[in-house]
Amino acid sequence: MAYDIALIPGDGIGQEVVAAARPVLDDAATDAGFSLDYERFDWGSERYLDEGAMMPDDGIDRLRDRDAILLGAVGHPDIPDHVTLRGLMLPIRKRFNQQVCRRPAVLYEGVESPLRGYGGGDIDLVVFRENTEGEYADVGGREHRGFDHEVAIQSAVFTRQGTEDVVRAAFEAATERDGKLTNVTKSNAQAYGMVLWDDVVAEVGEEYPDVEVERLLVDAASMDFVRRPDEFDVVVASNLFGDILTDLGAIVTGSMGLAPSANVNVEGDYPSMFEPVHGSAPDIVGQGVANPLATVLSGAMLFDHLGEEAAGERLRGAVADQLADGDAPRTPDLGGDAGTEAVVRDLRDRL
Ligand code: NAD
Ligand code: IPM
Ligand code: MN
């Protein structure tokens, strides 16, 4: 079996972590008896600087028939982020209706949390982030540019269907995990979209009587991600709130360099996309110290999505094994002094 995978390394350390993760994914695939046929797309900010566009006009069409997409990161210090992101990553999520973003945060054995008193296995949660609408709906405008009475409107859009898709995915995950779902909103202040959201959670929740539902406002949830992260199981949140909470989830479980994600097209009409939660990290680019494990773990989610769960488990096992080994190389974000390459070599040995 061969799968057709689009590789979009993108910008900054995105290129480093995708190049590093690729042989690891290949090893795991070969062991499991399948292979990955990649097509690599050099789309991103360099292309924008040369040709004025992040991807070609037919970019979306060229991705459409792939089995999955693996993306590194997008973002360049010399180009406004809204230009680069709205030129490449966000349109892929939207055009392929990747409405459900799944972002696990696991505190691995051997990894130090910045929170006192938490050790390996103590934190194991997953955030389901609505991924195509909400606060990221491209609806708004800007009038009277540069004048004192300039006004900008940025609207959030919540559809019943879009909300239901992510809420249902979260309930399903809760039934397979510890049966607990935390619904994060700001419905005390935002009386339209967030109240529709709460209504949908209540309605879908009736189909899952065994799932315990907790409601938290996003400000309190942010506090509780620090105060009691061990008590979360499945968290469901809107696009922006899910974005913010998943950086928090990443750091309380050790590092941005360990946090993977899946952007899932639930209907299966279009390819899903897998990418680390982190960005292009211009502060460390070119130093060879980017942690490749978030991308490797995103590859594991990609394998699960293809139905190759054994290979996914194998990758997660090798990562867990490496992190638990105090003598194994680790990158500076995890307190080590090893580079990306050393981490990959060690990981391949463990596979
Ligand atoms: P960032 O995630 O790139 O970096 C935040 C911090 O985490 C930095 O200190 C960085 O060095 C560290 N870090 C991130 N990934 C790491 C890794 N693999 N190993 C070690 N350290 C790591 O966030 P930012 O600085 O806010 O954003 C930089 C650029 O990336 C911006 O242009 C932003 O828009 C973009 N961005 C893109 C994505 C994406 O493509 N999915 C996600 C987030 C940010
Ligand atoms: C992420 C990123 C993106 C997002 C940005 C770069 C648009 O922060 O994937 O978490 O907010 O979705
Ligand atoms: Mn983010």
UniProtKB/TrEMBL annotation:
Please give the InterPro entries that the UniProt record associates with this protein. Answer: ICDH/IPMDH, IsoCit/isopropylmalate_DH_CS, IsoPropMal-DH-like_dom
Domain Isopropylmalate dehydrogenase-like residues, every copy: 4-347
Q: Which domain of life is it from?
A: Archaea
Q: Which SMART domains match?
A: Iso_dh
Q: Which GO terms describe its molecular function?
A: metal ion binding; oxidoreductase activity
Q: Which keywords does this Swiss-Prot/TrEMBL entry list?
A: Manganese, Metal-binding, NAD, Oxidoreductase
The cofactors required by this protein are: Mg(2+); Mn(2+)
Q: What is this protein called?
A: Isocitrate/isopropylmalate dehydrogenase family protein
